[in-house]
Amino acid sequence: MELAVYNIKGEDTGKKVTLNDEVFALAEPNEHAVYLDVKQYLANQRQGTSKSKERSEISGSTKKLGRQKGGGGARHGDIKSPVMVGGGRIFGPKPRNYGFKLNKKVKALARRSALTFKAQNNQIVVVEDLNFEAPKTKEFVNFAKNLKLDGQKVVLVLENQNKNVFLSARNIEQASVYTASELNTYRVLNNKTLVLTESSVAVLNQF
C-alpha cells in the first residue's frame, strides 16, 4: 500500500511511502485480539485502590445490644453489625490488581489489526518529518489546519522524542503525540486520524 507524503503546509510533496501489507493490510484482521488488547490496556489503568471497612475493622463496642430472646424484635449482635447504621459492609471492595496476562503474539496481532482497520478507513495521513523551532501551541494548531484535521481527535506518531513538538501539542485536548515504540492498540484506535511521519513509518513497518 502506498500513501502520499504531505509537508507541514498540507501540500502534496509528490513523494510516496510504502506501508507494509503484513502490518497495514492484513487479509483477516482479528477483532477479538483487538478487544483483548484494549481491555488489558484499560484494566492496567485502573488503580484498584477501592476499599471499604468490614465488621472487624469498624471502631465500636463489642457489647451485645440486647437480650437474645424476649425483646420483641430482631436479634442483634454488637453495634458493628452490617445491619446497623455505621456498621461494617458485607463483601465490600478490597484493593486488587485488575491487570491480566496477554501473550506477546496476541498483542502484536492486535496492533497490526488496528493499523489495518485505520488504513481500510483511510484514516492514516503521512507527513514529512517535522520540527518546531520552539514549543508553540499555535504552530501545532496551524499544522492541523493545513492538513484539514482541526477539530478532529488526532494522534501524531514520531520516530523519536521531540520536545518542541510534544510541548506544542500538550495543551490541545484533541491531540496526542507518541513515538512509534509507544504506539499500542488503544492509542491507534482512540482517535479520528493517525498522522505518521516519514521516519516513523519505517518503525511501524516492523510491527
Automatic annotation (TrEMBL):
Q: Where is this region: Disordered?
A: 45-78
* Alphabetized UniProt keyword annotations: Ribonucleoprotein, Ribosomal protein, RNA-binding, rRNA-binding
Ribosomal protein is among the record's keywords:
yes
Ribosomal protein: is it a keyword of this entry?
yes
Q: Which GO terms describe its biological process?
A: translation
InterPro entries associated with the record: Ribosomal_uL4 (IPR002136), Ribosomal_uL4-like (IPR013005), Ribosomal_uL4_dom_sf (IPR023574)
UniProt GO molecular function: rRNA binding; structural constituent of ribosome
GO cellular component terms, semicolon-separated: ribonucleoprotein complex; ribosome
Q: What does this protein do?
A: One of the primary rRNA binding proteins, this protein initially binds near the 5'-end of the 23S rRNA. It is important during the early stages of 50S assembly. It makes multiple contacts with different domains of the 23S rRNA in the assembled 50S subunit and ribosome.
What the record says about family reads: Belongs to the universal ribosomal protein uL4 family.
Quote the subunit structure annotation: Part of the 50S ribosomal subunit.
Q: What is this protein called?
A: Large ribosomal subunit protein uL4
